[in-house]
Design a protein that fits this description.
The chain is an alpha+beta fold and about 425 residues long. The protein is about 45% helix and about 20% strand. Helix 7 crosses helix 15. It is globular and about 70 Å long.
Length: about 425
Amino acid sequence: MMKLFSFTLGALLIFAPFQTLQAAPVKLDGIAAIVDSQPILDSDIEARFNVVKSRIPGGEMTPNIHRQILNQLIDETLEANYAVSVGMQTSSSTVDKAITSVAQRMNLDLDGLKQVLAKQGINYSRYRDQIEKEILINNIKKEIIKKRISITDQEISDYLSSDTSLSKDKDEVHLRHLLIRSNQPNEAKTKIEAIAQKIQTESDFIDETIANSDGQFAIEGGDLGWRPLNQLPPLFVRALGNSQPGSLVGPIQSNAGYHLLWIMDKRSPSTTIQQQTKARHILVRSNQIRDMKQTKALAEDIYQQLVKGADFTELAKKYSEDQGSTLQGGELGWVSPKTMVPEFENVMDNTAVGDFSKPFQTQFGWHIVEVEGRRKADISEKVQRAKAEQALIAQKKDVVLSNWLAELKADAFIDIKD
């Protein structure tokens, strides 16, 4: 079944004007790399550095900082290019909503946001392009996870009976992560041990991560954000044990290399009762032979058929392009809060039981949703298998995305200049 997971851009949407977006380059002073046919300019690296330099100790462009920013830009280019190559699009309305969300979280209107960007030296047009790119990358990653991770019933049963299953489903931990890849295992081990010796405080951890880590979030000091404990790799969970905030954990060896973790904080959310909605939907997407306007028209036609009394299940089987639910007549089952993207959840919550919505758009395409029922659910009792499936997906997704990116790099032409 397709899960329309909550659409967030994490730090991008909250801190975008200050942390992740590129300021307009002052001059084009050389090519740092070429990815397929697209150049990454020295000025692109400088622009990204200028946005994040306040978080870099000393505020200087060291060779390691330069390398990490360049690698980040290369990765983003490869991921966005792949999304475009498979026909994925980001609508203007989706980008507008994302930018409006940024402004609202900063208690600003659009003009106020533009003024803040201007003070940061960030061109609004380039800012908007970067938001669009981030949405595209976020969506293609969700598609890759959905296609490459399949959880069996036996895996869920085994997980539920394990020590690290739902006994820890409410425990969350805020971590920083440092990774040294093990292309040369002995050298990597020696390096991680030397780094660990230098770390006494969180500030030390941040400094060493920015200078040395091969991890995805190195430029942010390795900040992984809040993670449910049972959604971390089991290797990490065992190593964390009963360690308290302010503790260094590791080195930990995995197939990816050697890891260090810094525990920033822990918490245990207490929510156990929630309202769930039983729903089904029809999804149609634009593609190479049907543009967005034609897709909207198709959704409107399906809606008119429903108004005239057509069976929702049969129309879903005929038209819906959600591979996970089409054969089940669009059935999504009992949906918990915050498991759907906000646009979908908002329409679903405002549709009466027994009724269906008008066509509406999300980043996945055009939907019509039918609400079949609502209930109050004790999630600690009745959705264990669904929560277990989500936890198992979360445990595997980092490896899956890392392998996918490695495949993109292997197939791409990447020329890094001196």
